[in-house]
Amino acid sequence: MKISALTSAIALGLGLAGASAVAFADDQALTGSGPSFNLGNVKLTVGGFIAAESVYRNHDQVADIASKYQAIPLRGSDAYYLSDFRMTARQSRLSLLVQGPEINGGKAEAYYEGDFLGAAVTANSTESNSYTPRIRQIFTDYTTDSGFQILAGQAWSLVTQNKSGIVARKENAPMTIEAQYVPGFSWTRNPQLRLTQKFSNALTAAVSIESPQAIPANAKSNGITVVTTQAGGANMNSSQYTVDGLPDAIAKVALDPGFGHYEVIGMVRNFRDRVDPGTGAAVKPANGGNSRESASSFGANFILPVVPKLVDFQASILTGDGVGRYGSSQLPDYTTNHLGEISTIKSTQILFGLVAHPTPVIDLYAYAGEEKADRNDLGGGYGYGSQVGTNNATCTAFSSSGASCNLEKVAQATVGGWYKFYQGDMGYMQTGLQVSHTTADSFTDANGVAAKTSMNTVMASFRYYPFQK
Questions:
Q1: 371 burial class (0-12, 13-18, 19+ CB within 10 angstroms)?
Q2: Coil, helix or strand for 128?
Q3: How many CB atoms lie within 10 A of CB 234?
Q4: Max Cα separation, the chain?
């Protein structure tokens, strides 16, 4: 290890000797264990935490506490030869749970949760809402005594694994300090309308329609104009937004038979672009047409209590066409052929996790995940992963805007732990440390050579949960 890297690692460990416990933090902040008070018949519970965190990467991403897995530097870039050390408090979080009394067999609640990881004018809503101020979740739901629930607002996608049943605020997100979680974890947080029916303690089903966004790749054409994105307009940022016309539709069935938790998922997405004949001044929008393509995918998740209340094992998979948006690595959803017609890209996201609770104040975790896209060569250099005229030796970065150096897969191994070192009348404090190794590979080029890189990351965090149990 170089001296500069060693110095940064020591500073990371000593400069922030605390770390956050997403295990304790998210569980308790989301379930309403913070201080509560009543306004008439309405109960309000406040939550959240103050975070002081740091991150060291052996390759510079110029990134905060959320890594860019799809943009790990290659040897052809200066960033590959620079390390990255940052300290941040922007993952500090505020939450408010509002719960009304039961009336005529129904109960309403509302939930807000936000942090400070927004990115101003460059923010988008592809996977999470990063507008400023940043909303993580804001939704309302109504539940009847027959087990029916309707949820409306911004929440974790129905794709995201739950801990039991299908219950908002009970998602099984990885326990990482890393705000982009782990490659292989399938998720978004976006606006949706969800209907859930709990048939019994063992069986729950739900359907949702969720706000669409897509990740197009190599959207070029032969002498025509292909419009896959447009710049944001009224009340939108300057980022490019895909021209999707229909919401994502998701269905899930969850089983809780008494030992473990099991889920099956189905999803249908719809993609659209605009193809105009001619280029430049010769473009004739009125003579153009829209290209549309649908995509289906399937997933399964489970959590097994290997040693009840001590060790849990989890696994999840999402596979099919057009699922890139739902992965932490943000692989593309579709590409286009020489006519500008959409062709979806098949990819697979898989994640394994092991979580241990050796004492009431310590949580340990290990995750291994991968996201992999299939080659979609449409001939003549079109498509994603085409080998026509490619030379990965010249790549300076992974790209989805050209034929060369298209990212094929991202894999990561992560270990970490959390320690609740203080608990009293003022709340509790937690500390922890996380280490990860991430690899990224391109498709092979015309010479059969793939561009490869890797990144080592160390994160530490100190979080204080005021007045929470």
A1: buried
A2: strand
A3: 4
A4: 72
What pLDDT sits at residue 351?
98
Neighbours of 132 (CB within 10 A): 13
Amino acid at 242: T
Residue with tokens 């209590």: 305
pLDDT tens digit string along 158-217?
999 999 999 999 999 999 999 999 999 999 999 999 999 999 999 999 999 999 999 999
Structure tokens at 195: 């209907």
The DSSP symbol for 46 reads E
Distance (Å, whole) CA 452 – CA 75: 9
Residue segments in the chain with a per-residue pLDDT below the cut of 70: 1-33, 279-282, 402-403
The set of residues, in sequence order, having a beta carbon less than 8 Å from that of 17 and lying 6+ positions away, is: 431, 460, 462
Say which residue the tokens 């292989």 belong to.
184
C-alpha span between 210 and 173 (Å, rounded):
19
3-state secondary structure 277-317: EECHHHCCHHHCEEEEEEEEEEEEEEEEEEECCCEEEEEEE
What gap in Å lies between CA 466 and CA 469, rounded to an integer? 9
pTM comes to 0.90
How many C-alpha atoms does 159 have within 13 Å on its Cβ side?
33
- Any idea what the Cα angle at residue 117 is, between residues 425 and 440, rounded to 5°? 115
Instruction: Return d(Cα 383, Cα 220) in angstroms, integer.
Output: 9
**Cα distance between residue 384 and residue 365, in whole Å:** 35
Amino acid at 163: K
Strand partners, 437: 413, 456
User: What are the C-alpha distances in Å from 286 to residues 242, 282, 293, 299, 312?
Assistant: 20, 12, 21, 41, 58
Nearest to 411 by CA among 376, 345, 367: 367
Token readout for 177 is: 């300090």
Strands (E), 157-237: 189-198, 203-210, 224-227, 229-231
Cβ atoms of 94 and 51 closer than 8 Å: no
User: How far is it, in rounded angstroms, from Cα 170 to Cα 154?
Assistant: 15
**How many residues make up the chain in this entry?**
469
pLDDT for residue 381:
87
The H-or-E segment that residue 380 falls in is none
How many CA atoms, within 13 angstroms, populate the side-chain half-sphere of residue 373? 36
Token couple for 68: 């860019």
Helix, strand or coil for residue 418?
strand
